[in-house]
Amino acid sequence: MTDGQGREARGLALVAFSTLAYGVQPIFGRVAYAAGVEPLSLLAFRYLIASACLALLVRGPMPPLGERLRLWAIGSIFVGNSVAYFMALETLAASVTALVVFSYPVVVA
Question: Model pTM greater than 0.85?
Answer without folding.
Answer: no
